[in-house]
Amino acid sequence: MMQQPGVPEPRKKPLLVITSQVVNGGISGRGLTFALERIGHDVWFLPTILLPWHPGHGKGTRIVVSENDFSSIAEDLASSPKLADLGGIMSGYLGAAEQAGPIAKLIKAVKTANPDAPYLCDPVIGDHHGAGGGGLYVPKATAEAIRDKLVPLADIVTPNSFELGWLTNREIEGELQALSAARTLGNKRVLITSSPALRRNAIANLLAGPRGAVAAEHAAIEKPPHGTGDLIAGLFLANSLAGFNDEEALKRASASVFELVARSVKKGANELLFAEEQQSVVRAMALVTSRRVVETKARA
User: What is the residue-averaged pLDDT of the chain?
Assistant: First the structure.
């Protein structure tokens, strides 16, 4: 989408982000809020948990507000006279299973105030690479609450391949299996992050959308910092709201994440360097290839 010369760019609408907050590091709400604000969106940020850092960096205190307090603040937001101003919603990591209900009510309130506001659910529940060989890293009750109460409301769902397999009770070993599983969820768009790639030593992000499927691939980077799933989900949502079609929105989001990871790793960082490398978020120059994916076998 090209901006016409002399025509001011339309003001970007605020986004509601519901996910975890860390004191130090670039994961989840901390990095995501910076990235979205850097590209022009005001952010309403509702933290689900407070952590000193990503759990992968060591044990730390977990602070989760009571169920009543979380429900009350969600109700406050749902009654805001500015709710119709929101252009979209994104949820990620939950601190407790009991948060899913109030979040669902808040999402429905936003949708009532602005039916055009898309809801993106990033089901942050586990991966293939955690301690003990991977698996769920949230309590099963929390994963089930996300699956049962939030995923069905979503216009866009952004699981990694492990999360997709868990949500659909399927084995995900190849691209067509991932695509077939994504279609069973029933959401309008499913973006599988770190999906099986066709090329060796590559990472793919696979999008199953209403007009077909598309994959964006780039070179794999060893030991990437945490937070890439949060970021690509948020940037894909922002790009979609900016008017880009699915393929271009995915390609741009993938390029930004790849470039930010590459630059951070090159500097020896174990966190995404949002402040130093913020231009990667705004306009990445990294090479990402995209291709259409034939679905006939995946649907068989």
Answer: 91
